[in-house]
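Researcher: Before we compare anything, I want clean individual predictions. No alignment, no superposition, just each chain on its own. First chain goes here; please echo the sequence and then give the structure tokens.
Model: Echoing the first chain and its structure:
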Amino acid sequence: MKLPVPILSGLVLALLPLPIGLVGLVGSAGAEESPHPETSSGERVTDLQASYFFEREGTISARRTFRLRVEGEVFTRGPVLHFLTVFPGPAGLILDTGMEIDGVLRDGKPEPYRIEKGDGYLSLWIGSPEVTLEHREHTYTVTSRRRADWRQAGGEFFGGIDATGYLPHVPIDRAEVVVRLPEGVVPAKFSPAVTGFSEPAGTGDPGFETILRDNHMTVRTTRPLGDHHSVFLNLAWPSRTFASQSLWKEVLLQHPRIPLAAFSGVLLLWALVLLLLRAAGRRSRE
């Protein structure tokens, strides 16, 4: 299946050592996917509030709330979000996170949506084809969960969040992203990277602030983000209180041909051993 260009870009990023969780684009629900036109309109995300919870058993729960200003040029029925759902596992094998959408709200009320799953991505079409959005700000909330794509080394887990990958062509006036670990777990490392600001930076102004408080990490922008932006949060934390994150079980489930090939190899090896033993027995009798 042919992936949308943003998904292909995200897949390349996901294959790098940096753990990337999400990537996508926003479009108009009910219409064919197409690059969003460059526009001077005021359509934008005026505020983004996203929170991610890393659970001990290896699940990431997410809640994304964003206010979308609609003027009918880019958005007519609702946004379309595309999420990357694959990551590199052991031996370079590609694994799926099994992402699930738990619900979608618009202005606090359930909003219709449909899900399309492709090879390596999940598309979330929000809104009804029969309903045209009013030209105003609409507040959307999307909740989801997925298996973690953490990596383990030296007694630590390493993970990351792409916090705005599903809004690449829409300016964001303000954004605040919170990552929360279980109680009592303090991050060993936390390194946010924010790029794509719409205004030039002042001297010594990174354009965002970072707040670390026990098991909470918060990144808050202090300048607007333009159309082409990225917000990546990378962190490491002690692994001793978390469930084992061996991915070989997922490898066997998602790549069933591997155990079949291994079993076939064992049978062939056993047959070869039997042939050699028989040949040795014949020589000893002669």
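Researcher: Okay. Second chain, same rules.
Model: Second chain and its structure:
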Amino acid sequence: MKGRKALGAAVAVMVALAAVGVVAASAGAARSHILPQGFRYAAEIKAKVTYDGTYKIHQSGFQRCSTGEGETKVPTHEEATLHIDRVATFSHITVPVALPDELGKAVGKLGLQPTITTPGKISQDHSTLDIEDSLAVPNAESEGCRAETVVCHWDLSAAPGTGLEEITAHDLGDKLTTWAINVLGVNRVSGPPCAVGEGGGELSTILADSKKLYPEGLTNFPEVVISTALGNHFHQLLDKPRLSFNPVIDTPESGSANCATHLNEEEESCTNSVTGTTAIELHRLFFYKTKQAYPR
């Protein structure tokens, strides 16, 4: 009899504990609809972006040349190489570390876009622009024209008093894909006079050509991803005070369809590509936490 009573008591205790567990679970489920005070939703970080990328474009075709004997077409080629090799450092960037699903209804009040709060500085800069072009010129001692090679070189450096201040969100329609920083900034282009043109103008032309390599919604040259939406790097900073990774910037070599738009494809051709390496270092400084509870 005593054994039965003991067994009955044990069962009663187990039932009671189970009931308590159900109540606790219910309470936990209820609490899941509330974002508690002290919830970590954002962080202040510093970042270092090491970028070493090269955009190269090669075009071949013809130039028309007029002389006293008439007009001729001279085969020509142009190769431009834009090399961005620099380090960008950021002492303060505010980034979201909570995912939208975690914030729920509170995303309208606590959701934020990454923001550079102190402009980034460029250092260790070895960026250059080189162009080798051939120009059609009349022959001095004979009829017709010939191609004369022209070589131009410019050094690029960050313009004094400027910094990197923007983080760009790339998306595919309503779906965010990446946050990226363009390490180009405002540049001073210096070099000797060149028959091809002025360095600043050539830089703008080449950058415009480079954008044709990239489908809409992806980063452009010389941008680098500092966080993806899938496998969110900012979110990982909740558990990791430091994070390092190497975004890929290489593109396949592309032909005339994604190159200059003014080509006569029967007589001209064009290829371009981006190659290089990057390194991202994110260092968490501190968290931003909710000062009150919010409904999710």
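Researcher: What stands out in the second chain?
Model: The first strand starts at residue 34 and ends at 35. Additionally, Residues 2-31 form the longest helix (30 residues).
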